[in-house]
Specification:
The protein has 16 helices and 10 strands. The protein is α/β, with parallel strands linked by helices and 360 residues long. The N terminus is likely disordered.
Length: 360
């Protein structure tokens, strides 16, 4: 009867008072229950408290399921394709998923891919299909969800539809992935409902990996700093990077991002892919430029093998053998008009700052 009485109480304060009278470890239990009720109230992300996962089983929040679906593609290579032929080749070469883009010559507004192309590619392969939507354009996301894509990429390379807000990804039952360039930005996207984070480097497709390495090292470095902090220092750190405090605590406890973490931008060789994996990423995105060489199947297959055996130098040496000639077309550093490339880079950088002013 006593427990039934506790169950019927309507005021949390009275509940905690009764709990404190009969608890043998008052501070710990009170904090655990308080943390639990907060999570139940605001439907936030999965939380970890003392290495215990806390979730809400009563409310139908699909985010927990989306986190599990994101684990399916962990440890693999995602290949960008523009048609069903490339999609089939990527599947045969061992890609864990494909992301669909439209070929364009630069300039103009970059929007969601034609749904008919997405349907055609989805019918031709049996691996997960990722489609891109513009930042803030939740109607494009609704369309992509309705045609059955496996993941939606709220992509910063496309022309933003909303310069103030991102999509509320918790309103969807399909997993979202979002790009970032720092730890604070990554945790803000996770708070919005992103189930997979993509650290973004080069967005032009010139095969330069230096920006990606810098961003990945920055995130991993901030996490290492966070791991060595006292709990009372985390408040100031969360404020400094403009990130939700509970997600910062979770990152500290896990020693990594709370969701699957991929790297994207400038990865064109097996060595590049293995480098990202050894730096701590869970997988890589490969741009459609990998299909510009004379033997795209061998190139994609070599990258997939490099991701699977990223810690084995002997296998990596085999993956890199014989690729120089076939990848001659990937020397994208020489542009016909460097001014156009530089202007596009500046526009992309300005767009990120406008949408998310906290991006440094």
């Amino acid at each position: 009867m006593f427990f039934f009485f506790l169950y019927t109480l309507h005021f949390n304060s009275l509940f905690f008072f009764c709990l404190s009278l009969f608890s043998t470890n008052k501070p710990q239990n009170t904090n655990q229950f308080f943390f639990f009720f907060n999570k139940m109230a605001d439907e936030s992300v999965l939380a970890v408290y003392n290495h215990t996962t806390i979730t809400d089983s009563k409310k139908k929040n699909p985010f927990a399921k989306n986190l599990g679906r994101a684990q399916i593609i962990r440890g693999g290579a995602i290949i960008e394709v523009v048609n069903s032929k490339q999609a089939k080749l990527a599947e045969e070469a061992g890609a864990c998923a494909i992301t669909i883009s439209e070929s364009h010559n630069g300039g103009g507004v970059l929007r969601m891919v034609d749904p008919s192309l997405i349907k055609e590619i989805k019918r031709s392969v049996n691996i997960p299909v990722i489609a891109k939507s513009r930042i803030g354009h939740f109607v494009e996301a609704q369309i992509l969800e309705s045609i059955g894509v496996d993941y939606i990429d709220e992509n910063e390379i496309l022309t933003p539809a909303d310069d103030q807000n991102f999509i509320n990804k918790r309103n969807f039952r399909v997993p979202f992935l979002c790009g970032c360039q720092g730890l604070g930005e990554a945790l803000r996207r996770i708070r919005e409902g992103a189930s997979l984070i993509r650290t973004q480097g080069d967005v032009i497709g010139n095969g330069d990996i230096v920006d990606l390495v810098r961003n990945v090292r920055s995130i991993m470095g901030e996490i290492r700093v966070l791991n060595n902090m006292d709990d009372d220092e985390v408040f100031a750190f969360a404020k400094k990077i403009s990130a939700p405090y509970d997600l910062v605590i979770q990152t500290k406890q896990l020693g990594r991002l709370p969701v699957v973490h991929f790297a994207s931008g400038g990865i064109v060789t097996p060595a590049d892919a293995a480098l990202m994996m050894q730096l701590g990423c869970d997988g890589v995105f490969i741009g459609s430029e990998v299909f510009m060489n004379s033997d795209p199947y061998n190139s994609v297959r070599s990258i997939v093998r490099a991701v699977m055996h990223y810690n084995d130098p002997h296998v990596l040496a085999e993956c890199c053998c014989g690729l120089n000639e076939s990848m001659a077309g990937l020397n994208l550093n020489v542009q016909e008009d460097n001014t156009v490339v530089e202007e596009q880079e500046e526009e992309n950088s300005e767009a990120r700052v406008i949408i998310d002013p906290q991006v440094s």
